[in-house]
Amino acid sequence: MDIALGTKVSGTFDDVVARTRGALSDQGFGILTEIDMQATLKAKLGEDMEKYLILGACNPQLAHRAVGVDRQIGLLLPCNVVVREDTSAEDSFYVEAMNPDVMVQVSDESGLEAVATEAATKLRAAISAL
After folding, report:
1. pLDDT digits 0-9 by tens, 7-40
2. Gap between the terminal Cα atoms of the chain
């Protein structure tokens, strides 16, 4: 099992982030958190790295169903979506989302399978739209 669902896209970083936000929104996901890894590592450690943004995406209906099955599943929410620069090609970025099947594997709770399947379908649709 792959831990990520993803694709590679071209454009400017800001454009790819905006397109990713829009595609996620079209599938019912809101962005709860945003972590700019490049800025954080520079500020905290003085380290340089490529553009790397973590979006904490949440579909409220799916999250509600998941925590209804297993209250501890909140430890794996929201679903992280990463937009990161491909350092081998100009104006090229990877957009990757956590594979929801990870939730099922980690919890071993069969009741999460339907939620994970629906979440994966929506995330794949968002990624395909990019």
Report:
1. 999 999 999 999 999 999 999 999 999 999 999 9
2. 23
Question: Where do the H-state alpha helices sit in 70-100?
Answer: none
* The pair of three-digit structure tokens given for residue 119, joined into one six-digit string: 């979440």
Q: What is the CATH number of the domain that holds 85?
A: 3.30.310.70
Residue 15's domain comprises: 4-128
Tokens of 37: 């890894």
Q: How many domains does the chain have?
A: 1
Q: Token pair 């831990």 is at which residue? A: 3
| DSSP result, 23-71 | HHHHTT-EEEEEEEHHHHHHHHH------EEEEEEE-HHHHHHHHHH-G
pTM, entire model: 0.94
Q: Report whether the peptide linkage leading into residue 78 is cis, meaning its omega lies within 30 degrees of zero.
A: yes
Going by C-alpha positions, the residue among 86, 82, 81, 64 that lies closest to residue 73 is: 64
Tell me if 112 sits within 8 A of 66, measured CB to CB.
yes
Tell me how far the alpha carbon of residue 84 is from its chain's centroid: 11
